[in-house]
Task: structure prediction
Amino acid sequence: MVCSIRQENQEGAAIHFSRQTVANLHPSIYFSFNDEGYEWLTFAESHKHDIKKAFAEDYAVESPQSLFKEWFSINGGKKFGFNRLGYFIGDLFFQNQIAELGEIKAIIAWGKRGFEEQAKKWLSEDINR
Result:
């Protein structure tokens, strides 16, 4: 499996629709699918900027396979001590897409011209703060 900006968007969409399909669960369940995600989500939310920055830096230099391992695989998580943080980034990105485009356009945005450039721009926002 490889990692791409399109995968980030698709994973974010999956989390978004999981929230709609099975509503009113603790927010961590949508990322971990069990009761063990509270600490993970608490960490991710409180380190959102650092996580996004590290992902953006890796995206610029790492291979898709390396990105997948660190950011999506249960065997990753070396940077922050928590695996699968790419799903958190995907959710942030997709929620941003919804805010900017609306839900329907966010769903199909990955197939539109300029999508990758727009996603890279989002990744680089607030990087130097």
